[in-house]
Amino acid sequence: MEGELSDSLVRADSLGDRLARTLRDRIVRGEITPGTHLVEDTVAESFDVSRGPVRDALRMLRLENLVEPQRRGVHVVGLSTTDVRELYAIRQAIEGLAVTTAIGLGEHRSGAGMAQALRGMADTATPTHAAKFAEYDLLFHRGIYEASGNRRLLTMWLQIEPLFASMLAVTNSEDEDLSPVVTAHEKLRDAIVAGDNAEATALLTSHLEGSEKRMLSALQRIWANSVS
Predict the structure, then answer these.
(1) pLDDT for 193-223, tens place per residue?
(2) Looking at per-residue confidence, does 176 or 16 come out higher?
C-alpha cells in the first residue's frame, strides 16, 4: 500500500515540482543558507536539467517567500521564526474552519481517507522514515479539507502544503518515536467522525501549537549548527 499511495501523491509532479521540493527541503534544513545566490544556469548544471524546470522551481520558491529575485537568479531568504508563526496562524485559521465545516455537513466523509493515512503513519513512525511519515501526516490533514466540501479551503491548503512537508520532515527526523503523533491524529479523527466540534477543535489547536513549537526549536538547532 505504501508504494501505491506514494505513487499517487507524486504521479502528477513535473520535473520543476520535484526540483522545487529538493531545493525547498535543503533550504528548510539549512543546507542552502540565507544569502545564497542561485542562478538558473548553475542550478540546471548541478541537477543536470534544462533551464525550464529550474525557472519553474524558483518561481514556486518565490511564491513561498523562500527566495527573492535578483538581477541574475534569486537570493535565498530561508525560513525565519516569523515565517513559521505566520504559516501556523494561517493553518490554524483555515484548518479549524475545515474541521467545523466537515462536522457541520454531518456526513463524516473524511473517516475512510483519514483511516488510510493513519495506517501509513503507523507503518512509518520511525526517524528513518520521517519523510514518508510526513507524506501520510499531510494526507491525513488533506482529508479534512476534502471532507469540508469547500474547494477554496482545499486550494489554500495545497498552496502551503509543500512547505509544511519540508518542515515536518525536519521535526519528524528528530523524534525517536513518532507513535504519539499517530495517537494524536487518531483522537482527532475520532472526534471529527463523532461530530464533536469542541473536542476536535481543541485537539487540532493543541496539535498545531505543539508542531509549531517543535519547528521553532528545530530552527534554532539548524541555525546553531550553521554557525558552528
Answers:
(1) 899 999 999 999 999 999 999 999 999 988 8
(2) 16
pTM above 0.85, yes or no: yes
**Among candidates 177, 224, 221, 181, which has minimal Cα distance to 203?**
181
What region, left, alpha or beta, does residue 73 occupy, with left being phi > 0 and alpha being psi -120 to 50 degrees? left
Q: At what angle do helices 197-227 and 179-194 cross, to 10 degrees?
A: 150
Length of the chain in terms of residues written = 228
Whole-number Å distance between alpha carbons of 133 and 40: 32
